[in-house]
Write a structure and sequence with these properties.
The chain contains 8 helices and 3 strands, in the order E-H-H-E-H-E-H-H-H-H-H. By secondary structure, it is mostly helical. The chain folds into 2 domains: 2-63, no CATH class; 89-149, no CATH class. It has a 3-stranded parallel beta sheet with strand order 1-2-3, with no helix packed on it. The chain is elongated and about 55 Å long.
């Protein structure tokens, strides 16, 4: 199951009655934008301790977990944190399965330069201008300025 805390009604339920929220959205569940309701974390901790079953909760958000405002639960030993980057060029052009981990050796750089298509200056600029976040990199209709304005306070 997937639930996003971007929805004000869902977010309100998570903040005001975390126990009822977890009854409504049973595990396994992916809770997106967890930073909006840190009140859920003690209830998630209790549920994880009670069931001892990996993969019950998948928490995603646009803030670093340990820096979230109002987080007092460490969830030590119960959570794995994965920081994701934007798409690589290989992923954007559909060749991610061919890619090997990049080590900046002379040989690796030479192999990459020989095996890649070259981008025009305009295409390179477009890649840089749009960025590599999935929502904007793969959906050209998304307004770039509107998307990035949400990252600036």
């Amino acid at each position: 199951m997937y639930v996003t805390l971007d929805d004000p009604m869902v977010r309100n339920l998570a903040k005001e009655d975390p126990g009822l929220f977890l009854q409504r959205f049973k595990s396994p569940v992916l809770i997106d934008e967890i930073q909006y309701a840190p009140e859920l974390l003690p209830f998630i901790k209790i549920e994880v301790d009670r069931k001892h079953k990996p993969g019950m909760f998948w928490l995603t958000g646009s803030q670093h977990f340990h820096l979230m405002k109002g987080v007092s639960e460490s969830l030590a030993g119960r959570v794995g944190v994965v920081n994701l980057l934007g798409f690589s060029r290989g992923e954007l052009i559909g060749k991610s399965e061919e890619a090997k981990p990049f080590l900046p050796t002379d040989k690796m750089i030479k192999n990459r330069l020989e095996g890649r298509e070259t981008l025009s200056l305009k295409a390179l600029y477009q890649c840089i201008w749009r960025g590599s976040f999935p929502a904007i990199a793969i959906h050209e209709a998304v307004d770039r300025d509107l998307f990035y304005s949400s990252y600036v306070l």
